[in-house]
Amino acid sequence: MLGFLRQRGKEKTARAVEKTSRTWFGRITSLFRDARLDDDLWDELEELLISADMGVGTTQKLLKRLRERVRQENVTRPEDALDLLKQEMVAILRADRPAAPDASRDGGLLAVLMVGVNGAGKTTSIAKLVKLYQEDGRKVLLGAADTFRAAAIDQLQAWGARLEVDVIAHRPGADPGAVAFDTLRAARARNTDVVIIDTAGRLHTKVNLMEEIKKIQRVISRQENRASQMVMLTLDATAGQNGLFQARAFTEALQCDGIFLAKLDGTAKGGVVLAIADELRLPVLYVGTGEQPDDIAAFDPAEFVDALFGAEELGQAR
């Protein structure tokens, strides 16, 4: 999907991880340039990866794989070991990545259900997705199923007006399932390609609110000419390991298809992406790369690692 936007997305990804690249992965590159392959190097590498928010478990797994390959392949030059590190990082990000549902070109409808906690950047991420789909020639409709807060409906309608996209909304306090039903019905009538349904920003500990999301899913599933569903979890990249805890709680309660990682440009600890992929087997599908609607990039594992190390080519990792 969106192949013609790939080069622009690659450039945006590079800008989004610039802080992480300069702060941590630039130091990792220097480490392999200046040190020998000894215990001191492995210890310092472990410290740097954990500091980049990769997490202890993922870091240890990565280092175990790397050291095994260095031994098995008789690698003696640090620069060659660095290439192996990049390859293993790409492997983690690619592992068990399912194909995300998508709107087909033959009239199939995709219903994207956006979930996440308050403050994660969910509504702004919806606007970015709208812009991305529009640039790919898709017709989009929004559903304001966050009826808990009147301000949430107003915010979504404001984005809709700015992006020239209709928003299906009920009054504050209305049944979110009814909003989803009316949104799907309107989408069918208007030959829409993609429906994006906003949900209340909710704490993952609120069981009744999770059940509300499941109700919306059931409403979508029961529609005639069923739409393909995608549950996209919005996470704030600046939350670091807390974002990982949120993701784990959501995936235990809901079957999520992937993650929209918002505010990646606002953190120097982008290593959390690898922790998410490794611990949850949940792919990052899109990343937020700035504040404007077109500041979004479809996530590509090799390009992400490439950007982290600031290299033009990733060599064999591709």
The CATH class designation of the domain at 110-256 is Alpha Beta
The largest sheet has its strands arranged as 3-2-4-1-5-6-7-8
Question: With helices defined by DSSP (H or I, 4 residues minimum), what is the helix count?
Answer: 12
Number of strands: 8
What is the residue-averaged pLDDT? Answer: 87
The CATH superfamily of the domain at 110-256 is P-loop containing nucleotide triphosphate hydrolases
Portion in beta strands? 5-15%
Helix content bin: 40-55%
Judging from the principal axes of the Cα atoms, what is the shape? Answer: elongated
Distance N to C terminus: 19 Å
Structural class: alpha/beta
Uncertain spans: 311-318
The SSE order reads HHHHHEHEHEHEHEHEHEEH
User: Mind summarizing the main beta sheet?
Assistant: 8 strands, mixed
Output the CATH topology of the domain at 110-256: Rossmann fold
Identify the CATH architecture of the domain at 110-256: 3-Layer(aba) Sandwich
Radius of gyration: 21 Å
